[in-house]
Amino acid sequence: MHDLVIADALVVDGTGAPARHASVAVTDGVITEVGADPGPARRRVDAQGALLTPGFVDIHTHYDGQATWDPVLAPSSQHGVTTVVMGNCGVGFAPARRDRHSWLIGLMEGVEDIPGSALTEGITWEWESFPEYLDALDRTGRAVDVGAQVPHGAVRAYVMGERGARNEPATPEDIAAMKAIVKEGLAAGALGFTTSRTLAHRAIDGEPVPGTFAAEDELFGIGEALRELGRGVYELAPAGAAGEDTAAPVKEVAWMRRLSAEIGRPVSFALLQIDAVPEQWREILELSSAPDARLYPQVAGRPFGMLVSLETLHAFADHPAYAAVALLPLKERVARLRDPELKARILADHPAEEDPLSSMVRIFSDRLYPLSAERPDYEPHPSASIAARAAAERRDPMELLYDLLLEDDGKAMFLLPILNYAHSDLDAIREMLTHPRAVLGLGDGGAHCGFICDASLPTTMLSHWARDRSRGEGLPLEHVVRLMTRDTAALYGLTDRGVLAPGMKADLNLIDFERVANRRPEVVHDLPAGGRRVLQSADGYLATFVSGVQTFDRGRHTGAVPGRLVRGR
To answer: Which residues cross the membrane (predicted)?
Structure first.
């Protein structure tokens, strides 16, 4: 008698093998059979040919604070993700001295745009050391499993105090102390160590993340902790990752290759297409493939950019004439903005001090695209841009944008791709996704709450790449599933999941493949202290299981929280 049987499913098992019709049996949270109907079970689900995959493993999230208070971890859990890895980019909340709590919150708020008020109210500091942080995570169940990495920023500040926070050089004694803390965290179950070197990552006070300018003796010295234990991934946001220094990414690969060879551990780093050097990613992938390297570039499955709306950011937010209505509730604000006189004043206005993000929206109207409420398009044609539509209608682009922002009672949303869209298509991303060293990541679940929601990437992978792409070649469904399951799990040594096979953890997704699709993002205020975030739900997920327990039923959380802390082996 099995606990669960999912019968007559189209099984895509995560290995890349061809899809096949089969049934899957589960007992005690583990898959026991995959094949013919395995017989009786306490619960039987008739899949009726629906797609059955392993649960998705998202290796790039920032739920470090949210995981301490939120059992659901949306939106990731709403998109078939059953395991998240957090602590990326060198930011996190452990180790933490009592007098550094506010500073760590400011660091996360600045780098990852998570409201500081939400973190302040939501986090109950039950730890100082990293092992104590893991123990705190281990005491609470969730809808997904969570794994954590040791963040350089927190470690540097813990050891060096203000010197570390201000990026002063580390002494040999500092490096030895940091290595000891990282080694202690890895021994307790951390999945890796992370750092950031991009100038785009700054604390709320404008200071670069601690470790941004770390010398090689510090970077390699800390890496020795991974070598000595023979475990963990070394993850980073490299210099120039956001296009701030186009010469830096290639230089970064050189030391990362030496590091991976010296410590004998995988090194994973963010790789995005940059407009100024749109083919550089090819060179980086080639360098990463060298026999002496264990480098795994993290790539995204869609453009990296901002969501423009009246509730996130937009072209008029820094106009003095807009300030009079900026703080009104959305419904009242939309009513006022429809007044022709106010519209004329705002359009004729100029900011006294330009906001960089609002300015970007104004400058790049040729790369600003409306997102439809149903099945938003993440590979829009240039003819759909605000600039192109305005030209066709012989209107000013900003006047057109103003009117479109008011549609759907002010909930209209627009995509402004910043990276990964240099040629206004996703051909480069497709090539990245087929490279043998590339791993899928950069969804940033839990982060960039005010103007990004890329945690819905798994749904884009299924709907766009495996089914709908019309502006070029798509990807086989089996390849797409493998990218999100076996490959990401294997990088972090999570060998008990990511494949549908006997003996593997019963993390499962039952999906209506013809219907699976993202809905348009929306702004909600459901974080502690009423904090704002952008969420994106999806259609087509029939059921999600974690360790054989159903956590989602047609997009709704069942209330079950079987997810636990994943400790590295």
So the answer is: none
